[in-house]
# Entry
Amino acid sequence: MTSGRKIFRFLKFIQDLNKLLDYSNRNFSISNILKVCMLLSATFYHILDSLVWVNNIGLIGKNM
# Structure
């Protein structure tokens, strides 16, 4: 069940990167800086979550 739900979040970090690029072109207010920090955190979370999912389904192993 958990692996089935993770497939919906697979490669979601690409969407986070697009939002991050959008906010990087705006002015540097406190609000935008905090949103960029939030998006960076979400991007790393989704990248690591995708790696865990790929490992759980057996595409990468201990040798890699």
The radius of gyration is 15 Å. The chain has one domain: 2-56.
